[in-house]
Structures are given as structure tokens and as C-alpha cells.
Amino acid sequence: MNDELLEYYLDYKILGSFLKEYNILIDFFEKRGDNEIIEFLTKRRDNFHKRINERGED
Q1: Which of 8, 30, 37, 54 stands the most exposed, by the fewest C-beta atoms within 10 Å?
Q2: pLDDT in tens, 13-56
């Protein structure tokens, strides 16, 4: 496995883990009805997802 592919794989795994954690946090705050935090977490999650997709297009 070349270095670039390994780097992509690690980034994908790490960012994928972040996405799972963000989804858990969003679910938690949805139950509490804290819309401000949900909005913040959703933006962050979407940015991470965008980075994964952009990285895959290179």
C-alpha cells in the first residue's frame, strides 16, 4: 500500500468515527431540544462529511 493510499484510508477511518460520534451527540441533544447545539453539531458533521467526499475525488 503506498503512502498516499494509506493516508487516505486513515483519514477516512478517523473522519468516519467522528461522523458516528457527531450523530450520537446530535441524537442526544435532539431529545433535550437544544436546537442551538444541534445546529452547531450538524454544521461540523457536514463539514467532516464534505472533507471525506472531497478527499475521495482527488
Answers
A1: 54
A2: 887 788 888 889 999 999 999 999 999 999 988 887 787 777 66
Euclidean distance between CA atoms 17 and 12, whole angstroms: 9
Q: Quote the cell numbers at residue 11.
A: 483519514
CA 15 to chain centre: 5
CA dihedral over 25, 31, 37, 40, signed as positive or negative: positive
**Beta carbons of 26 and 42 less than 8 angstroms apart:** yes
Helices within 1-58 (DSSP H only): 3-32, 35-57
Q: Give the Cα separation of 50 and 43 in Å (integer).
A: 10
What pTM did the predictor assign? 0.65
